[in-house]
Design a protein that fits this description.
heterodimer; A: mainly alpha; B: alpha+beta; 3 helices; 13 strands; disordered N terminus
């Protein structure tokens, strides 16, 4: 049983979560989102809040 | 819980919150990539969530991408329907991953849109099913009829944006 637990721990060490940043699927999805948001913009409520926060800091 | 072991971050164990069970998931040191295993009649299917930094109109946000890892090619495929009988559990897991991601990056916006209208409806279902828990922490917006609006159940949206309160 202990060996199995050790194996699981070692599997985790040797199989870290990959960096998927260059995966074509995710790159394509991110680019598609950019097109959408450049066309439709962001929620006004979020932008107003961000502007207020930056004014407070500034 | 965040347990850093040689760069591996086991983020959550199999838990039940708000009566919704979700899978254990893990991330890497960037906290942009998350993985979990769907388990069901079709076997074990590795799922991947990626938050891709992006910029539109001078505003930075993160695109949420989700798909199945093809163990043979190593590529992601989000058009596959794994039909592993655990849709609710998968959606709850994605919702929890968003919560964890925005703990790491509390000031960011997260954008999500399915690859197909059916997949977007699935995201909508995932948000709606977890709305009580999500809305305690996040403001959720949906794009419908040409405008962004606060997320409401029973409305079909084209895309979603979430931001920490």
């Amino acid at each position: 049983m202990k060996n199995l637990e050790n194996k699981k721990a070692m599997d985790s060490i040797h199989n870290p979560v990959r960096d998927y940043g260059n995966d074509p699927y995710f790159v394509k999805k991110a680019n598609k989102s950019k097109v959408f948001l450049e066309k439709h913009g962001f929620p006004k409520e979020i932008l107003d809040k961000r502007n207020n926060n930056s004014n407070l800091v500034g | 819980m965040f347990c850093g072991i040689f760069g591996i971050f086991i983020v959550a164990s199999s838990n039940v919150i708000m009566n919704l069970e979700y899978y254990q998931f893990k991330t890497n040191s960037s906290h942009l990539d998350f993985e979990f295993d769907s388990e069901g009649p079709k076997g074990t299917i590795r799922k991947v969530v990626r938050f891709s930094p992006q910029n539109a109109n001078g505003i930075t946000y993160f695109n949420l991408g989700f798909g199945d890892l093809d163990s043979e090619t190593g590529n992601i495929n989000d058009l596959s329907k794994s039909n592993n009988g655990d849709r609710e559990k998968i959606l709850a897991t994605i919702a929890h991953i968003v919560l964890v991601f925005t703990e790491y990056f509390p000031d960011v916006m997260v954008y999500a849109q399915g690859s197909t209208s059916a997949r977007t409806r699935l995201y909508q279902m995932g948000i709606a099913n977890n709305l009580d828990e999500i809305q305690d922490i996040l403001n959720v917006y949906g794009y419908n009829a040409g405008t962004w609006q606060r997320f409401a159940k029973q409305v079909n949206y084209e895309a979603f944006l979430v931001v920490r309160k």
